[in-house]
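in:
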């Protein structure tokens, strides 16, 4: 059965217990598959990117038909770190809900709406209003321009700079290493595995380190980062407590010896083309 996230952030736990490990966060408007109903307020779910965990029913709308419709019609995403959805298109209006970057909504047409506002439909069916500049059409197609994608995915990751580290986090409230990389790719139309490893069935493939380019992924033991070029990478670091930039160059002031000396793999979305 499909369901839709109605909370700002729905937590995925390792056990049906709020005190258990947070393994992921599913953002407002995302659809999930319920694989088991445990009763007493908990379900076991699988996300669209094949991550699994226990979620509270209260954070979901359990409606198969609506979830299927919503999945196709929610074609816009919040790109601001935080965005209030208001009852009326004016800043003094009452808030319906606050959404974080990556949340999905359905943009709708409203006559005589001021240029700075966009009307959106929520999962509940309510109509709300957000600043137009905080809303963007979802990117769903495979990138047509490799260089543009590489630049955009880096800039998206950098938009999370100074976000606090949160184990299992995936929003500007707190994000972990794989959460940062997966969101940077997702907001640019590509779904990668939400963990610090290359997994078959997802579009990232291993390449030699000397082929690494801007936007590729760097894998360390239990850690993942996004390569920016010029030996720099952006990552959400447990050791650094937030999203930050470091260097693989031992002579650079941002060099981190513990990571530079334990780099295991490099992954790319763009496979090396065979020689003709």
């Amino acid at each position: 059965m499909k369901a839709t996230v109605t909370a700002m952030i729905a937590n995925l736990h390792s056990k049906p217990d709020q005190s258990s490990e947070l393994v992921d966060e599913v953002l407002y408007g995302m659809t999930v598959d319920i694989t088991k109903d445990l009763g007493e307020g908990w379900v076991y779910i699988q996300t669209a990117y094949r991550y699994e965990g226990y979620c509270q029913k209260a954070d979901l709308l359990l409606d198969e038909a609506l979830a299927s419709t919503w999945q196709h019609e929610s074609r816009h995403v919040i790109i601001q770190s935080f965005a209030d959805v208001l009852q009326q298109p004016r800043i003094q209006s009452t808030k319906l809900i606050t959404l974080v970057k990556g949340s999905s909504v359905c943009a709708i047409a409203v006559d005589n709406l001021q240029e700075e506002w966009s009307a959106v439909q929520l999962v509940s069916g309510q109509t709300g209003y957000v600043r137009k500049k905080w809303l963007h059409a979802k990117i769903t197609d495979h990138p047509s321009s490799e260089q543009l994608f590489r630049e955009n995915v880096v800039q998206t990751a950098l938009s999370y700079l100074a976000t606090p580290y949160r184990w299992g986090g995936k929003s500007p409230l707190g994000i972990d290493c794989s959460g940062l990389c997966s969101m940077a790719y997702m907001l640019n139309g590509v779904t990668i595995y939400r963990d610090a490893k290359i997994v078959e069935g997802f579009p990232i493939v291993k390449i030699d380190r000397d082929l690494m380019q801007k936007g590729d992924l760097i894998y360390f033991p239990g850690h993942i980062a996004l390569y920016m070029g010029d030996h720099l990478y952006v990552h959400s670091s447990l050791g650094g407590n937030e999203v930050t930039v470091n260097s693989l160059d031992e002579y650079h002031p941002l060099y981190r010896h513990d990571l530079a000396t334990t780099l295991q793999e490099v992954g790319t979305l763009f496979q090396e083309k065979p020689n003709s």
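note: The mean pLDDT is 95.
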